[in-house]
Design brief:
heterodimer; A: mainly alpha; two-stranded antiparallel ribbon; 71% helix; B: alpha/beta; Rossmann fold; six-stranded mixed β-sheet; three-stranded antiparallel β-sheet; 8 helices; 9 strands; 26% strand
Chain lengths: 470, 241
């Protein structure tokens, strides 16, 4: 029986002019956005690659100089974007994609947006993903708001009831039939998107899996909207009331929930301002963390320890460069303090992201936005992974220059020199985005919220079926 | 006196809508091969009676029976034994008559070939060139014919008609009446709610007049004169009796 209903709904939906008009309209918007974002992403990737090579070459061709001075020249590193980012630029507009790596200080220009912009600005951008998470559900609402109420108004529901058709297979048949027709209309857009991605980027297995996971998640998302719409259409007596309620649900899910979630997150777990953040790092380095003593006390203790270690009474008599040793010691402490504060800030970002789900009771859009960003590798977790890799690289090349400085000088003299062959021997920053399992782990809460919503939508459909009267 | 077995029965049926009594202690029976026409003004309870047999309403007291069994206790009875034709046969506009017939038949667990479906539509009076056209282009009479084809395909033992000739032109109404008569002659029990006295006298075996939920008068349609029927009907409608 349900197969017959699915088939009938599939055929009827395809014959319904609304589907084609909306489908063509949205296809045009989707392709337009996707072409623009694919072009932008390709250009960005080329620019990052080109600037990255130039920056490393500039590093390589430094003149003969003190290794530490060379380190101060610094190196730019860039976060490589995955091809899937063409679907969803995620946090790209809000965080810096390049990092300036230099001694003594961990630079994260991306932290300024966290203080200058509100969290709500991370949502609601007019992108390909906006079509996917905002406009397509609206199309589903437009197609389904009267799927049952129209049958009631026209009398076909009484006909079906007189045949003894149970409401549950009727509503679930409608759901599956509509989704099948919807997917058929959507498939050209998916194919074109895949072709464009294949033409512009070299797609690997992980990219394919990320695309597949995105497709599955969005299908779940659309199923939620379709099920809620059909349930509303069955629950309310008229199409007008059903449409009104569904539009309210769509608005709440797509626009209100992310902002409400952001406000909740900022209220319960606010970020420090940029000045507070940097000031606290400066203070902790100067004053020392718990029990470590202030900067002078730590410097005196370190000097005493080094002198004892080398069996000399004066710094000038040390067989290695004390300036470099001392710098490394200070940098080590600075790294510890930076790490503490940066981790705290990033943990707060992650907590805020979880707190935004307090507004997920209004709809599943927060979850799909986060999931989409995670699959595109453009979420906080991927950003953090990149930052950690960049920080590790910073330690690598700073330590290397300090090694040269220390080994090529004695006592308090600053005579150590390095040359082009040294600079060239510094390995280039080589970073690959983590695989899909990382993305899925990072988005576990979002997946759970989406599954919960799917369960709620199915429950609503079942409830509406139980009380459906002709 | 028709001694055929009873197919449709209402026994002391009472149906209340909140505070309003829509059916008040109704007793009627429709044997096999009989057309029973329920006459009455708006709100008399004709459609509510039909709806109760279809389980759209639940009896507040009493019961309705289909071949001796309650459809409210055994809902599958509705599916297998009853065909229903409302005033406006509700079909899916974006599907053809043939597709509608196939759809409703499959849902009723009746599997017919395309040829059989075409034959059923033709037998119901729908012209062959209309079979494949979308129902959106059909007239009311054509929709009624698709409805009749669905009823025929079910081989139902009873047919419930709610104002079936309302809005049909005289020729289409006459054609429809003949098909209803033919269905009854083939053994079907027909319960028909109508305003159309002429149609009732033409097609029915028994006629009942309902007023404020009660069956106030019953006639043998073969013996009652049209004038007498009209006078009784109008008298009840005007509250003179």
């Amino acid at each position: 029986m349900i197969a017959t209903i699915i088939h009938k709904e599939f055929v009827s939906t395809l014959r319904d002019g609304r589907l084609w008009i909306l489908g063509v309209f949205l296809l045009a918007i989707f392709i337009g956005f996707f072409l623009a974002s694919t072009h932008e992403l390709r250009q960005l990737r080329e620019e990052k690659h080109s600037v990255g090579l130039t920056a490393k070459e500039q590093w390589n061709t430094q003149s003969v100089k003190n290794p530490h001075s060379a380190a101060h020249y610094g190196i730019y590193v860039f976060k490589p974007d995955l091809p899937v980012a063409a679907l969803d630029p995620g946090l790209r507009p809000f965080v810096g994609q390049s990092l300036w790596l230099e001694p003594h200080k961990r630079n994260l220009t991306r932290f300024s947006p966290s203080t200058d912009q509100i969290l709500a600005n991370r949502f609601g951008q007019a992108t390909t993903s906006f079509v996917l998470y905002a406009l397509l559900p609206l199309m589903i609402v437009a197609l389904t708001f009267n799927s049952v109420s129209q049958e009631r108004e026209r009398g076909t529901l009484r006909m079906l009831h007189s045949l003894g058709i149970a409401a549950k297979p009727l509503l679930f048949g409608k759901l599956l039939g509509l989704l099948s027709a919807f997917m058929l209309v959507l498939s050209p857009a998916l194919l074109i998107a895949l072709l464009l991605l294949g033409q512009n980027f070299s797609l690997g297995l992980d990219d394919g899996l990320r695309l597949l996971a995105s497709l599955v998640m969005f299908l779940m998302y659309y199923t939620i909207f379709a099920a809620v719409s059909i349930a509303a259409s069955a629950f309310f007596q008229t199409s007008r009331v059903s449409l009104f309620c569904l539009l309210a649900f769509w608005l709440a899910s797509v626009f209100v929930a992310p902002r409400l979630g952001a406000v909740t997150a900022e209220t319960f777990s606010p970020n420090p301002t940029a000045s507070e953040f940097w000031e606290s790092i400066k203070t902790d380095i100067a004053q020392g963390l718990d029990g470590d003593g202030n900067h002078e006390q730590r410097a005196q203790a370190f000097e005493a320890k080094v002198l004892q270690e080398y069996g000399v009474s004066r710094k000038e008599d040390l067989p290695v460069g004390f300036v470099s040793l001392n710098r490394q010691h200070n940098d080590g402490y600075s790294v510890r303090v930076h790490e503490l504060h940066f981790d705290g800030l990033r943990d707060n970002f992650a907590l805020q992201q979880h707190l935004t789900h307090f507004a997920s009771w209004l709809g599943p859009s927060i979850a799909i936005r986060s999931l989409s960003m995670a699959m595109a590798g453009m979420d906080l977790a991927h950003q953090r992974d990149f930052e950690d890799a960049a920080e590790e690289y910073r330690h690598y090349f700073i330590d290397l220059t300090e090694d040269w400085d220390r080994e090529r000088s004695h006592g308090t003299e600053r005579s150590a020199k390095g040359q082009e062959s040294d600079w060239r021997s510094v390995k280039a920053f080589d970073y690959s985005a983590p695989k899909i399992d990382f993305a899925l782990r990072a988005a576990l809460l979002d997946v759970m919220v989406l599954i919960c919503w799917l369960a709620v939508a199915i429950a609503l459909l079942t409830f509406s079926a139980k009380r459906l009267t002709p | 006196m028709n001694t055929s077995p009873l197919v449709l029965e209402a026994q002391n049926l009472v149906v209340n809508y909140k505070q309003h009594r829509a059916i008040d202690t109704l007793n009627l029976s429709v044997p096999k091969g009989c057309v029973y026409a329920l006459l009455g003004g708006n709100g008399a309870g004709k459609s509510t009676t039909i709806s109760t047999f279809l389980t759209f309403n639940r009896p507040s007291a009493g019961q309705v029976l289909i071949e001796g069994q309650s459809p409210h206790e055994q809902p599958d009875l509705v599916r297998s034994k009853i065909a229903y034709l409302p005033e406006n046969v509700a079909l899916y506009e974006l599907m053809s008559g043939l597709e509608n017939l196939n759809f409703f038949c499959t849902l009723a667990d009746i599997h017919i070939s395309r040829e059989q479906a075409g034959q059923l539509l033709s037998d119901s009076g729908l012209q062959a060139d209309a079979h494949g056209k979308r129902v959106a282009t059909y007239s009311k009479g054509m929709r009624q014919k698709v409805g009749l084809a669905i009823a025929s395909a079910k081989h139902a033992s009873a047919m419930l008609l709610d104002e079936p000739t309302s809005g049909l032109d005289p020729s289409a109404a006459n054609d429809f009446a003949q098909r209803i008569r033919a269905a009854a002659d083939s053994g079907m029990a027909v319960l028909m709610a109508t305003h159309d006295l002429f149609n009732a006298k033409q097609v029915a075996d028994r006629i009942g007049i309902m007023k404020q939920g009660r069956l106030v008068e019953e006639f043998d349609a073969h013996t009652v004169q049209h004038d007498e029927l009209e006078q009784k009907y109008l008298a009840h409608a005007r509250g003179l009796e």
